[in-house]
Amino acid sequence: MTSTGRARTSGRPTLEQVAVEAGVSRGTVSRVVNGSLEVSPRALKAVQEAIQKLGYVPNQAARSLVTRRSDTVLLVVSESEARVFGEPFFGSLVRGLSQELSTTPLQLQLMMASTARQHDRVEQLVRNGHVDGVALISLHGDDPLPRNLVAAGAPVALNGRPMSDIGAVPYVDADNLSGAKAATEYLYQQGRRRIATITGPQDMAAGIDRLSGYRSALRGRRGGARLVAQGDFGQASGEAAMRELLEKDPQLDAVFAASDLMAAGALRALRTAGRRVPDDVAVIGFDDSDIARNVDPMLTSVAQPVGQMGRELAKLLIAQIRDPETTLSPVILPTELVTRESA
């Protein structure tokens, strides 16, 4: 009889067979499989090579009984599916989070949770021990979900500064206020004096902070900071807000939009109104996403390190899963103004 493919042991490979193949103890193999850090790099490599050679697959049910872990991290986004899959911010954040988790046994599970029923389902997953930790993205207002998950005993990390005091729950955010202030000051330095803004949602810290940065930059300066229209970070809201601003002040000469999508909507409204960008109206967005480089004219935008935010979010969760008693500080990442044709 002939055989094809790589050689394997008969039947399902066992932990003991992996140990023999790797030349280490059964306990060392067990620590590697369970994601322990107490393994030398040399032993780790030997075990990983033996696992690959033998085709060993851990018995997840038995492993969960021993470790009391599911090796699953839940990513909860408090937005609709259309927004999550249609806006580049979420994809970049998930990519960064996944990259960091790939260095651990933890797997990522995504859930949209914008309704009370969906929130209940998330809490039930945690109470039943089906997830080891929860990352929360795009929270609105005084959402009770973080407090409820902490009360249920889950490690929790947030993307975005919380709107209310929820205790010692760590979070990752960009320096939204400084980024918006830098963008608005740049417009003023370019000689613009009727500077408007299209805000993000005012039930989210990012929306509030970017409006505060705009107002801070214009405080005490001629023209003030009165040309404000609210959006929801989406393109359609940016277009509608730009039309509103033009009705308020047809002579406005600049606009800072709190997202690239809203800035793209503003460009469309300005084009329809016969305004040239940047000759008549300069435009700056926020995110420095692919959209900024794919509109005409290309957008000046405030860059925030979204991929790094995802990686830092994963690190906060991993640290809590490994040591539930650890104390973690918020992670605030810097922003940077990237100048292009629109301003």
From TrEMBL:
<feature type="domain" description="HTH lacI-type">
    <location>
        <begin position="13"/>
        <end position="67"/>
    </location>
</feature>
<dbReference type="Pfam" id="PF00356">
    <property type="entry name" value="LacI"/>
</dbReference>
<dbReference type="InterPro" id="IPR028082">
    <property type="entry name" value="Peripla_BP_I"/>
</dbReference>
<dbReference type="InterPro" id="IPR046335">
    <property type="entry name" value="LacI/GalR-like_sensor"/>
</dbReference>
<dbReference type="GO" id="GO:0003700">
    <property type="term" value="F:DNA-binding transcription factor activity"/>
</dbReference>
<dbReference type="InterPro" id="IPR000843">
    <property type="entry name" value="HTH_LacI"/>
</dbReference>
<dbReference type="GO" id="GO:0000976">
    <property type="term" value="F:transcription cis-regulatory region binding"/>
</dbReference>
<keyword id="KW-0238">DNA-binding</keyword>
<dbReference type="Pfam" id="PF13377">
    <property type="entry name" value="Peripla_BP_3"/>
</dbReference>
<keyword id="KW-0805">Transcription regulation</keyword>
<protein>
    <submittedName>
        <fullName>LacI family transcriptional regulator</fullName>
    </submittedName>
</protein>
<dbReference type="InterPro" id="IPR010982">
    <property type="entry name" value="Lambda_DNA-bd_dom_sf"/>
</dbReference>
<feature type="domain" description="HTH cro/C1-type">
    <location>
        <begin position="14"/>
        <end position="57"/>
    </location>
</feature>
<keyword id="KW-0804">Transcription</keyword>
<dbReference type="InterPro" id="IPR001387">
    <property type="entry name" value="Cro/C1-type_HTH"/>
</dbReference>
